[in-house]
Recover the amino acids of this structure.
């Protein structure tokens, strides 16, 4: 039986957070969904917590193969019109799926929606403005790689039409050591499908910052960026030569941000310089596009009618 959303949530050793993640889905105000929790070979109590939800979720168990393989396993069984990614240490705000559904109805089933996230550090209170009701405010782009604003893109913000996910071949068959930047990979694979709708209000996702975040491994993230750049050089992303500059700018934005904000500031200056050198044409494209933005009027947000 078809549903509007299939939530895909890989789980690996997240017993501290996974219950809140699942409950945030089950408490949604919009209820036409199914939840796939893919236990990726957890060695803590995560699997037992997932089993405690019974038939309210669909549990898949596999050996540890990484989150891309896990999401692909869930997507293969999903009945949803849309796939909504959710990391097991994040959670959705109650109106997240209702917000996405309004966007789908308003924009005639767009292939890609990016939610709005609030970052908060574990142990601190979520800012009050994150949970206040707001009208739905979005920005519409031709497609993802034509965006004109910098965007954070954790997986928990990504909502993608299942037919599009299937058409591009899903995610990679990566490993627990090579999955990094999986968010940008799927966005580049679907980068020419449009329109791309970016939510600005209300917040739909809470991104939890804690010591176990995968972004803590600066070197693996840097290596992941280089893998994405290699895929670009091999012609694995859509758009051909006509959209190469747009893809370069997206990749260069990720490379320069990671090199300067995380590698350099974190004391790994050789790693920062290595990453910038290996992606130099892409970094140039990103900087050029950024310099041109001051001459272009930004796209005005659209407030959806109630």
């Amino acid at each position: 039986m078809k549903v509007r959303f299939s939530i895909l949530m890989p789980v690996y050793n997240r017993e501290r957070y996974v219950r809140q993640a699942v409950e945030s889905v089950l408490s949604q105000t919009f209820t036409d969904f199914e939840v796939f929790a893919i236990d990726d070979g957890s060695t803590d109590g995560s699997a037992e917590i997932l089993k405690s939800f019974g038939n309210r979720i669909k549990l898949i168990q596999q050996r540890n193969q990484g989150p891309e393989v896990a999401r692909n396993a869930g997507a293969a069984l999903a009945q949803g019109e849309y796939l909504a990614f959710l990391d097991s240490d994040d959670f959705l705000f109650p109106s997240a799926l209702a917000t996405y559904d309004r966007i789908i109805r308003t924009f005639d089933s767009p292939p890609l929606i990016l939610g709005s996230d609030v970052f908060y550090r574990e142990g601190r209170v979520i800012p009050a403005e994150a949970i206040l009701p707001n009208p739905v405010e979005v920005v519409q782009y031709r497609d993802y790689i034509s965006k004109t604003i910098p965007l954070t893109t954790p997986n928990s913000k990504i909502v993608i039409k299942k037919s599009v996910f299937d058409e591009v071949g899903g995610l990679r068959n990566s490993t627990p050591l090579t999955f990094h930047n999986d968010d940008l990979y799927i966005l580049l694979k679907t980068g020419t499908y449009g329109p791309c709708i970016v939510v600005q209000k209300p917040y739909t996702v809470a991104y939890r910052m804690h010591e176990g975040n995968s972004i803590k491994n600066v070197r693996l993230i840097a290596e992941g960026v280089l893998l994405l750049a290699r895929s670009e050089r091999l012609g694995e992303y859509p758009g051909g030569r006509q959209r190469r500059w747009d893809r370069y700018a997206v990749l260069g934005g990720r490379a320069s941000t990671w090199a300067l904000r995380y590698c350099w500031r974190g004391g790994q200056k050789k790693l920062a310089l290595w990453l910038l050198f290996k992606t130099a044409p892409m970094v140039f494209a990103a900087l050029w596009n950024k310099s041109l933005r001051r001459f272009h009027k930004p796209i005005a947000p659209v407030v959806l009618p109630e």
